[in-house]
Fold:
Amino acid sequence: MSDVQKTVPSGVYAPLYTFFHEDEPLDLEAFKQHVKWVASAGVGIVALGSSGEAVHLSHDERREVLLAARQVLDSDASLAAIPLIAGTPASSTRETIELTRQAAECGADFAMVITPGYFAGALTRAAIKQFFTDVAEASLFLDGAGCITGLANLAPKTCMKLYKATTEYLQSPTAEALDEVRRLQGIVSRGDWPVIKGGIAGPKYVLDRIRGYGGAPRRPLLPMEAKDGEKMLAALQEILDHEKTL
Structure:
């Protein structure tokens, strides 16, 4: 591993969804809109994670997604400092390293690596440790910090407000500051569970309703039925209303 160190900035990060047209090619314009909206709230970008359906994408498609995110961040001076984290999930160590290097070439600041799951039954503790060791030794940087929450796809300003309020309270604790943290934490907590239950299809349904883009996941995942989507939208109304005030 290189002696060069780069620290992941602490803060709120959104694991972005990948958007598709009806016949399933990438909808990069919708993705760019979403990157800009989320990043404009000061939220860091995580592309190609589980929420981003990375396992449904080819290597070339993953490259396109990262290049699109990098283009949006580089096109606006106010967004240039927003970190871009790339998920590089793969079934083998070799492919994980290859995708991590590709992510760096596409302008990602950091990579997010997960344990391979296809041969989960055969992965001993020693094998898992060796996997992360091999990937880390092939990387320039190794670190981890901050919060990654799917809710930041739908209410990025609210998530950032909670993060900032908590940081301010820790630096200068007062009863009033604690009350504000608790108020915001309640709003975020009540919004988080519907997003978790909604998987990928649910938040995409909500994005369609509140942002005009979202669409369906790539098959074999199916879109959320309208009746379930409307229930999820209703469950999120408190935090969505709060987001509009910011």
Notes: The chain has nine helices and five strands. The CA atoms of residues 32 and 69 lie 6 Å apart.
